[in-house]
Amino acid sequence: MNTSTPVHAAAVILIFMSTLTSPNAVAKNASKASQTATAAFGPSNPFYAPSTLPFKAPPFDKIKDADFQPAIEAGIAQHQAEIEAIANNGAAPTFDNTIVALEKSGMLLDRVMSAFNGVTGANINPTLEEVKTAMAPKLAAHEDFIFLNAKLFARVSAIYNQRASLKLDPEAMRLVEKYYDRFVHAGANLSEADKTEVKKLNEEASTLSSDFSNKLRAATKEAAYVTNDKAALAGLSDDKLAGAAEAAKSRKQEGYVILLQNTTQQPDLKSLSNRDTRHALFEHSWNRTERGDANDTRDLIARLAQLRAEKAKILGFPNYAAWKIEDQMAKTPEAALKFMDALVPAATAKAAHEAQDNQAVIDSQHGGFQLEPWDWNFYAEQVRKARYDLDDAQVKPYFELNNVLENGVFYAANQLYGITFKERHDIPVYQPDVRVFEVFDADGKHLALFYCDYFKRDNKNGGAWMSSFVEQSRLLNNSPVIYNVANLPKPAEGEPALISFTDVTTMFHEFGHALHGMFSNAEYPLLAGTSTARDFVEFPSQFNEHWALYPTIFAHYAKHYKTGAPMPEELAAKIRKAESFNKGYAMTELLAAAELDMQWHMLPPGGPLQKSDEFEKEALEKTHLLVRDVPPRYRSTYFAHIWAGDGYSAGYYAYLWTQMLADDGYQWFLDNGGLTRANGDRFRQMVLSRGNTEDLGKMYETWRGGPPNTKAMLKYRGLEENPK
Ligand SMILES: [Zn+2]
Questions:
Q1: Are the C-beta atoms of residues 664 and 654 closer than 8 Å to each other?
Q2: What is the whole-number distance in angstroms between the Cα of residue 7 and the centre of ligand 1?
C-alpha cells in the first residue's frame, strides 16, 4: 500500500496531491458503470500485470488514456477484496496476517495510480481531466473503506495492544504504531453515525478539491496576459519575447502571450519597464480566481474550510489544524505559530529596508509614485544590478541545463555519496522531453531509476515536484523509480537551455527529494523514502540546495556553454553575495502564505462561510503580515497547496520549519569538514535512507547531535540582527 504524495519546491512549487491520500466512502455497492468498466479490464490493459520493464518502470509506450479508468476501478475493487480478506480472516490477528498483508495489498492500484499521478501532473489532457474528476471521490471513498473499516481496525488494535510482547524489530514496531495512528486519525474510533458523517464530509471535500484544481488550471490559463502591442512588453529579452510569441502561436492567438506562474509575483515583472503592463500582469495574477466567472474559487474554499472544521470537530479536535498537525514534527498548531511569530519581526524589518531601497531608485529616477507590489521586482532588480552588478543575462550562459544536471546536481551527489549516473534510452517515457537515468551505487550496483521532466508545458501543473513511479521496499523487492518535474523555459529548437541561478537551485532542491527516495532502505513501503511528515520532507531537498554554491561543486558546473570557460570568480562572488538579497521579501511572502493557511484551518467548527477577501485581510493584519507592498506568495483563492488536495493544508509552515532543519543541518557539514564522502555517507545512513522508520525528531537529533535551532537559518536567509 503506497501512500506517498508528491513533494514540491519551496521556491517554485505547485502541486497535485495524490488523490490516494485524500479522503472517502462507498465501495459496498460498486456502481453499474464501474462494474462494466471493471469487466472491460483484462490482460490487454498494460496495468493488468506488473511491469516487465527493468525495475518495474511503467510501460508508457503501451499505456493509452483509455487504460487508466478501468485499471483504477479494477484496482480499487481488487484492493477492497484484499482488505475484506484481511479483515475477515478467521485466524487470530498477527503482524504477518494483518500488518504485512496490508503492506502487500493494493498492488494493482499502486501501479496505475503512480503512473496516473505522474501523467496527470505533468502531461494532462481533457480525457485525463475527466478521468481524474470521476475518480477523485471514488479514491477518497476507497481510503475510507480501509481506514474506517471496523473489523480491520479491531485487528490492527489487537496487534497494537500486544505490540510490546511481539518481539518486533524497531521498524516493524514503528509500522504497527503508524497503522494504528492512521486509523485513529481517520476516525476508526468513532461511532458508526460519526463515521458516516466523516465519510460524507470527506467525499464532498475531495470533490471540491478536484474542482478547485480544474478551476485554478483553467483560470491560470485564462488569465494569461495577452497583447498585440510589442511596445507594452518593452524590457523583455529577445528570448522572452520569442517565447511569448511562441506561446501565442501554440494557443492560436495573435501577438504575445505571457503565461502565469502559480505564485502571486510573475518572473517577467522583473524586466517589464512599462508600469501599466506590470500593473495589468500583476492584476491578472492576483485576481485570476476572483473574476466572478465560473473559475472563481472564493465560495469553494470557504466551504472547504468549513467542511474541514466540521470534520475536525467530529474527530475530537478544536480545529482542523490541530487534527492535521498531531502527527507532525511540530505536533501542535501553536508550536508552528510560535515558530513563525518569532520570524515575523526579522522578516518584515528586512522587507521594509528593501522597500526603502526600491523606493529610492524610483525617486532617483523622478518616478513620482509610491512603490506597489507590481513594481517591487522591477526596482529590486535595479537595486540588485547596482549593488551587485549582477544580471541574469550575464550568468545564464554559465548555466546550461544539461551541464548543470550532470556536472552540478549529479556531481554533488557523486562527491557526497559516491553514486553515478548513466542515461538510458530504452525506458519508455510519457512525453518526448522526459529523460531517464539509471543510478548506480558506489560499488557499481543498481540503485534506482531517475526520470527528469524539466521543461514548461501548458498541460503541466505549475512549479516543481518529485514523486515516484515505484517506491522502494525490501518487502516488495522494489528498487526506487523516482521522478523530478519542473517548469524551466524550453529553448527554441537547436538552442541551448540556459537557465537562471534560481532554476539551478530548483534542480538541486528537487534532486534532494529524489535522493531521499533513491537512498530509501526500508522494509515496508508505508515507511519508505519521502513518506515522512510534511515538516520533515522538505528538509533533504532544501538541504541539497546548499551544495549549488559550494565552491568545488559550483566550479565544476558553472562553465560557459560555448567556451567551457569557468565562470569568472568576480561573477561567482556576486551570485553568492546576491543570495542574501531580497530575503526579507521572500521570507515575508512565505510567512504570509503560511499564516493564511494556518488561520483558515484554525477556524472553529460551526462558523459561517467566510468571505475570502475579508478573511484574508484580517488574518494578515492579525499576524502583522499585512504589508502593503509584500502580498502573500499565494492568495487564498489560488493557494493550491492547501486546497487542491489536503497534503499541505495546515502544513505550509513546513517549508519554513524545514528551512530551519536544512540550514541547521548544512551548518553541521560545514562544522565537520564540509563536503566529504564520510559526511555524506553518515547523513545517508542516519537520515536519507531511513524514511519514516523512526521518530523524525529523534532521527534528526541523533544525526545532528542536538535539536534544531534558527541560528543558521537567520544567517543564511540574511536576517541576522547584526549582519556582517
Ligand atoms: Zn520540495
A1: no
A2: 5
Centre of ligand 1 from the C-alpha of residue 71, in Å: 30
CA 669/CA 49 separation, integer angstroms: 45
What is the distance between the alpha carbons of residues 516 and 519, in angstroms, rounded to a whole number? 6
Q: Which three cell numbers stand for residue 116?
A: 496516473
> Cα–Cα distance between 11 and 548 in angstroms, integer?
14
pLDDT tens profile 143-186: 889 998 999 999 999 999 999 999 999 999 999 999 999 999 88
Strands 7-8 and 225-227: unpaired
- Burial of residue 456 (CB within 10 Å: 0-12, 13-18, 19+) is middle
Distance (Å) from CA 464 to ligand 1 centroid: 8
Residues 675 and 555 sit within 8 Å (Cβ to Cβ)? no
Max intra-chain CA distance, the chain: 83
The grid cell for 679 is 559526511
Question: Can you list the positions of beta strands (E) in 367-480?
Answer: 420-424, 435-440, 446-455, 465-470
Can you name the residues that pair with 448 across neighbouring β-strands?
A: 439
Q: Assess whether pLDDT exceeds 80 at residue 35.
A: no
User: What local confidence, expressed as pLDDT, does residue 5 receive?
Assistant: 56
Query: Phi-psi region for residue 460, left (φ > 0), alpha (ψ -120 to 50) or beta?
Result: beta
Please identify every residue whose CB atom is under 5 Å from ligand 1, which is an ion: 7-9, 538, 541
Distance 152 CA to ligand 1 centre (A): 34
State the Cα–Cα distance between residues 13 and 261, nearest whole angstrom: 9
Cell 475536525 appears where? 312
Beta bridge partners of 422: 438
Nearest to 180 by CA among 159, 149, 151: 159
Closest CA to 121 of 246, 213, 221, 202: 213
Three-state secondary structure call for residue 419: coil
264, 637 Cβ separation under 8 angstroms: no
Provide CB contacts within 8 A for 676, sequence distance 6+. 416
644-663, pLDDT tens digit by residue? Answer: 987 789 999 999 999 999 99
Ligand 1 centroid distance, CA of 452 (Å): 15
Rounded distance from Cα 535 to ligand 1 centre (Å): 11
Q: Phi, psi at residue 114, to the nearest 5°?
A: -65, -40
Alpha carbon distances (Å) from 2 to 358, 704, 715: 49, 29, 38
Whole-number Å distance, alpha carbon 8 to ligand 1 midpoint, is 3
pLDDT tens readout for residues 10-29: 332 222 223 223 222 223 33
Residues marked as catalytic: 510
* pLDDT interval class at 476 (50, 70, 90): very high
d(CA 198, CA 190): 9
| Helix axis angle, 410-417 to 501-518, nearest 10° | 40
Q: What is the dihedral of CA 170, 171, 173, 175, to 10 degrees?
A: 170
Beta-carbon-side half-sphere exposure of residue 52 (alpha carbons within 13 Å): 4
Measured N-to-C along each axis, helices 192-222 and 298-314 cross at an angle, to the nearest 10 degrees, of 160
**Rounded distance, CA 347 to CA 208, Å?**
34
Going from the Cα of 56 to the center of ligand 1, the distance in angstroms, rounded, reads 25
